[in-house]
Amino acid sequence: MRRSRRGLKLSCLTLLLLSLLLSACSGGGGNNGADPAPADPGSGGTEEVSEPIELEFWTIALQPTFNDYFNGLIEEYEAAHENVTIKWSDFPFDAITQKLLTTTANNESPDVVNLNTEFASQMGTKGALADLNEHLTDEEKAVYFDGIFNSTIINDKAYALPWYTGTEVLFMNKKIVEEAGLDPANPPQTREELAEWARTVKEKTGKAGYAVQLVSKLLPIDGIQILNEDKTAAAFNTPEMVAMIENLQGLMEEGLVVKEDAEFSKQIQFYSAEQTAFVLAGPTFINFIKTSAPDVYENTIAVSLPTGKAGLRLSNSMNIVVPSKTEHPEEAAEFAKFITNAANQTAFSKVANTLPSTKESVEDPFFKESDGSLEAEAKLASSQSLTEATDYMVGVPNAGDINSAIARGLQEILLNGKEIQATLDAVEAEVNNILKQ
Question: What is the mean pLDDT of the chain?
């Protein structure tokens, strides 16, 4: 349902649309006196409106798999809000971003939209999304995990409500690990320990440890800031960044980490062919490995992800946003709160095998009990890390462009042998230029 992806690469058309959008958008409207969403989603509602309202709701790649869930959700909401109807449309990920840019530039904005954090940040910094602080009480903000909610905030404006999320866990091929003389019941807890396990696997079996995608999330794992505190300049060109790259360079040269920019599909291929012993991925990885390599699936176990120097867990979240051009900001925000409240996030997690971004949800037995299956092990391991989770593009403006610039720099150094400091200097200049645009 979610796909692994590089930083969003905006096409020339997209950049043009963004510039049009920036000049046309007037910021988030709304009523500061909006009533809070009721604890029981079936009771209460917004102030009664005199005229019928239709809210256009867009999601990403959820039809037809979850039609029953969303049809029921919409029916429940409409029953409690008799003058409001919801028109639900679903689009592929690659299509929704372009369609949103186009419709917004043409003053045909939807009202409530499902976006990932990266694109929500991109749209928010262009003035295209409403500031939901105008519709949220402190109590409503507190229902979400702090690190995940804060990933939607730029310059004190909340551009999205967190929805379903995921944190990575460590999947390991128990057969390979045991052949290397390692004990899967006592897995590595840190990235340094994981490197030692990979070294042992390489020495004993000839296989690599794991593969990685060369993207900017590698920085916060080691406590390296992408931008400075006020998000006006790059902050990653430091001795710590050089040390992180040199360490990864060494792991690749030893054959402990595959020397390749391995997107998610490539990581699945390596693991399915038993060329690697580990995968660092979210629980959705299971669906792919179960299909592509059933024998490997049977030998796979899931444990908590080893942490880097920063000691944090990275989430990869979907959000609900309200475009600033909606004609019904208050009603749109009310529906956004309904979609993402604890009860509805818990219900969606149970049918979609995702993680919720609401604190109350993870207290449900669904997230605490295991039947011993790989799916249950992964669910427990990932849900236990939500209190430490944060989206790695926390409040980063122009997130997609910055992601792409850093990724290209890492590729140049680690795959093409470019000099570290000179490349970092060039990437720093590129990021600073992006921030000025």
Answer: 86
Is the distance from CB of 121 to CB of 90 less than 8 angstroms? no
Distance from C-alpha of 224 to C-alpha of 205, rounded to nearest angstrom: 34
What is the rounded end-to-end Cα distance, in angstroms, of the chain? 33
Give the pLDDT confidence of 367-397 residue by residue, as tens digits: 888 888 998 898 888 887 787 777 666 566 7
Residue 196, phi-psi category: left (phi > 0), alpha (psi -120 to 50), beta (remainder): alpha
pTM, entire model: 0.71
What is the arithmetic mean of pLDDT over 157-181? 94
| Whether the Cβ atoms of residue 174 and residue 186 lie closer than 8 Å to each other | no
Q: Could you write out the three-class secondary structure of the chain?
A: CCCCCCCCCCCHHHHHHHHHHHHHCCCCCCCCCCCCCCCCCCCCCCCCCCCCEEEEEEEECCCCCCHHHHHHHHHHHHHHCCCEEEEEEEECHHHHHHHHHHHHHCCCCCCEEEEEHHHHHHHHCCCCECCHHHHCCHHHHCCECHHHHHCCEECCEECCEECCECECEEEEEHHHHHHCCCCCCCCCCEHHHHHHHHHHHHHHHCCECECCCCCCCHHHHCCCCCECCCCCCECCCCHHHHHHHHHHHHHHHHCCECCCCCCHHHHHHHHHCCCECEEEECCCHHHHHHHHCHHHHHCEEEEECCECCCCCEEECCEEEECECCCCCHHHHHHHHHHHCCHHHHHHHHHHHCCECCECCHHHCHHHCCCCCCHHHHHHHHHHCCHHHEEECCCCCCCHHHHHHHHHHHHHHHHCCCCCHHHHHHHHHHHHHHHHHC
How far apart CA 313 and CA 318 sit, in angstroms, is: 16
Task: Look at residues 142, 134, 125 and name the one whose alpha carbon lies nearest to residue 393.
Answer: 125
Return the CA Rg of the chain. 22
CA dist 33 to 38, 184, 334, Å? 15, 55, 12
Among residues 282, 342, 324, the alpha carbon closest in space to that of 39 is found at: 342
Q: What is the pLDDT of residues 80-89, one digit of tens each?
A: 999 999 999 9
CA 380 to chain centre: 19
CB neighbourhood size of 12 (10 A): 7
Helix axes 117-124, 399-414, angle to 10 degrees: 120
pLDDT at 341 over 70: yes
Distances (CA, A) of 383 to 199, 244, 432: 29, 28, 36
Cβ proximity of 405 and 381 under 8 Å: no
